[in-house]
């Protein structure tokens, strides 16, 4: 699950449908279904330059629905580049307190939060010192995790196509065609090409929740992933809860934090992760592209991080704090995922993580354990970085407390 | 003086000079001279969609100069339009507390503040109910006045050309030519076409400060403006200070709050303003264009507000609070102003107010009076709206406590 990360579109045609024909449906899905904005709520919109068309549609739909105020916050990665290049390295982890205070205030105000994701300038950090890049965690702030875990906001992250992102995903195409194809992919995986996108999502979410309930009923002690370059055993806490991405706030507002979502997930025992894992998809995080990632874990800690490209950035992030080298999430994805079926690498966690089973370094979901004692043991960190480790070639097996082994996913098909 | 208000450019040629050749000089002027950013400072940049090129140049120059953090805040007037159209009217004056708290925190952190001004979508509020438009004061928040008056931040407002603004100023031209001409005008009035813009500004500011000192030495009791449609007497407080736009923070940082600046100004006695005044330029405020403005004052209060267009918006604003119908500023501008000489209406207070003498409804400058007793009497309001009442046809006369009358400005030339 993608817990935080802060896309516009032009008017090019796809199947005789213009991009701009999808802007309003995407905004309606985000506001009315995913975030499920209630009348009278403040709605925070996290955007980036180039995503104005969708951000404005979100604001319009939110006000039509009765929002009290739509609060725009824009993160410009060019500011970050200038900082990483020129600022005193000792100041690179500084975050003005009001940025986190606003996030906490959104929780206190029981606001809705809508994050428009998708990289606008994916190569912007190329050539910069990865250690410096890794020190500046923005737009992520540690207060985001606190607000997610307090369940005080009905929030969602939705993808927003931009020309920069389109070029990354479809580098061989002309800009207009690349953007067209990215829009087509995003509309498909967001089920905007269904007659009734909301019904389609309700059906898929019901299925994911059913799987999560079955996994929970197995009371697994550990999960093992085996495939090319991967043999990793992830221990689970005794009261671990398996979840799917239909959340409810403490005020009873149902929301869907990630669209698209295709995963069932939990937070593991941070001390019981052992073995090696090879990422099955590239990862784009902290402004850097990481490909060919290999990680070895010992007693919960990532003790070796290698990659064909970008290892330095992830190593730097994993040294951020005590919990940064331990797991905060284990998520399973089956082959019915529309993203997996597309076989497109989007270089965007929100989409790619829903193509395949994945794990995340860093902060856990506190609601992923039933007992207070287990909740205290969950991993804590300022970071939460998902990376994809699953594919149809990676078998997932569960092990119960008494040592019984149960197939969970084989060839991408649920076995339970 | 323009106390608050939250520009981009394309690559069109002017005199064989590309717009983009002015982006960096404008950013350097803003950071190094106007705001006078000090190493280690947080720098807040207030921008709008379409002003990314200049905003990014400002961030880069600021980090090169040693800024600790450059904090971007983006106001999108399209969000405001959606709000005015669709939100519950009873909520239109709601501002989430964190917006003002951030401004106060900038003061506490002794931050630098750079505002990129210039309307990006000037006709956006056309056709909306002016009463509703007037209730939403954003991006202005009342905390801005408090921080200005506390002199805790070194701040500046600089103009940023955008296509939307260019179309407003030069509606007869093709978009590229209009933007070209606006850039040319802005570069000229910001003295970016001088070999050494900073020296040019130092010379002009020295002259304005000299005039302000002379006006202060006269200890005027009132100032009278007389011209076509105008006969207005503005009473001054006994310890009134005349100022020009070179400010010093409480920490001793000199800064130039408005560039361009061509004015000397004070804050008047809010109870002693009588007569009629006709605006000599259109006014663009709260997203609305106001033309042909006529205001009658009685004992300090604006008791009649009429206009050829947009009167409703200003009437609504003037009812905002107790001080909103009284004056917070009187500013005098001579004919040496580069803006006045251009004879271009920019529909942007920062520039137009520096073309001509002007008055402002709303909040006063607390440092415009020497004595605490007088400072207590200064006008207070959530609004501060400048409008232009001067021209070469408007004579300005001073009256001393003993009734002597002294010419101040005749035919746009200083008489003192």
Features:
homodimer, 416 residues, alpha+beta, Thermophilic metalloprotease-like, 2 domains, 5-stranded antiparallel β-sheet, 13 helices
Brief rundown of the structure:
Two copies of one chain form a homodimer. With 416 residues, the first copy, chain A, is of the alpha+beta class.
Description of the structure:
- Two copies of one chain form a homodimer.
- Chain A is of the alpha+beta class.
- Chain A has two domains: 19-189, Thermophilic metalloprotease (M29) (Thermophilic metalloprotease-like); 197-414, no CATH class.
- Helix content of chain A is 31%, strand content 25%.
- Chain A has 13 helices and 23 strands.
- Chain A has helices spanning 20-34, 52-64, 77-86, 97-108, 130-135, 142-150, 163-169, 175-189, 197-217, 311-318, 338-342, 349-352, 372-377, and strands at residues 13-14, 17-18, 42-47, 69-74, 112-117, 154-159, 220-227, 230-235, 243-244, 247-248, 254-255, 263-266, 273-278, 283-285, 288-290, 294-298, 301-306, 327-333, 358-362, 384-388, 395-400, 405-410, 413-414.
- In chain A, the strands form six sheets. Chain A has an eight-stranded antiparallel sheet with strand order 17-16-13-8-7-21-22-23. The first copy, chain A, has a five-stranded antiparallel sheet with strand order 9-12-18-19-20, covered by helices on one side. Chain A has a four-stranded parallel sheet with strand order 4-3-5-6, covered by helices on one side.
- In chain A, helix 4 runs parallel beside helix 6.
- The longest helix of chain A has 21 residues, at 197-217.
- The two termini of chain A are 22 Å apart.
- Residues 4-15 of chain A have low confidence and may be disordered.
- The interface between A and B is large, with 40 and 40 residues.
């Amino acid at each position: 699950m993608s817990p935080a990360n802060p896309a516009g579109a032009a008017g090019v045609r796809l199947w005789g449908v213009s991009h701009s024909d999808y802007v309003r449906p995407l905004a309606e899905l985000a506001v009315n279904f995913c975030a499920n904005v209630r009348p009278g709520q403040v709605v925070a919109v996290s955007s980036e330059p180039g995503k104005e068309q969708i951000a404005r549609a979100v604001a319009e739909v939110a006000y039509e629905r009765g929002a009290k105020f739509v609060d725009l916050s824009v993160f410009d990665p060019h500011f970050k580049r200038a900082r990483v290049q020129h600022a005193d390295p000792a100041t690179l982890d500084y975050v003005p307190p009001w940025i986190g205070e606003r996030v906490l205030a959104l929780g206190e105000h029981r606001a809705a939060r809508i994050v428009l994701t998708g990289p606008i300038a994916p190569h912007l950090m190329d050539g910069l010192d990865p250690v410096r890049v890794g020190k500046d965690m923005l737009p992520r702030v540690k207060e985001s995790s606190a607000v997610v875990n307090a369940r005080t906001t009905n929030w969602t992250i939705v993808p927003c196509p931009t020309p920069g992102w389109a070029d990354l995903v479809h580098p061989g195409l002309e800009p207009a065609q690349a953007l067209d194809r990215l829009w087509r992919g995003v509309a498909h995986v967001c089920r905007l090409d269904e007659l009734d996108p909301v019904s389609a999502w309700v059906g898929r979410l019901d299925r994911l929740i059913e799987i999560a309930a079955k996994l929970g009923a197995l009371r697994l002690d550990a999960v093992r992933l085996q495939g090319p370059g991967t043999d990793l055993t992830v221990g689970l806490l005794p009261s671990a809860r398996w979840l799917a991405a239909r959340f409810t706030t403490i005020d009873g507002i149902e929301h869907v934090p990630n669209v698209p979502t295709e995963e069932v997930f939990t937070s593991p025992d941070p001390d019981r992760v052992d073995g090696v894992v090879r990422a099955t998809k590239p990862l784009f995080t902290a402004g850097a592209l990481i490909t060919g990632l290999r990680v070895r874990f010992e007693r919960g800690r990532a003790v070796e991080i290698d990659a064909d490209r970008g290892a330095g950035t992830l190593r730097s992030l994993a040294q951020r704090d005590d919990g940064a080298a331990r797991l905060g999430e284990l998520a399973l994805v089956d082959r019915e995922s529309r993203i997996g079926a597309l076989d497109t690498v989007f270089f965007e966690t929100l989409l790619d993580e829903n193509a395949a089973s994945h794990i995340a370094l860093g902060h856990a979901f506190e609601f992923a354990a039933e007992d207070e004692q287990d909740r205290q043991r969950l991993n804590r960190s300022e970071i939460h970085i998902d990376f994809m480790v699953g594919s149809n070639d990676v078998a997932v097996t569960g092990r119960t407390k008494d040592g019984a082994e149960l197939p969970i996913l084989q060839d991408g098909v649920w076995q339970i």
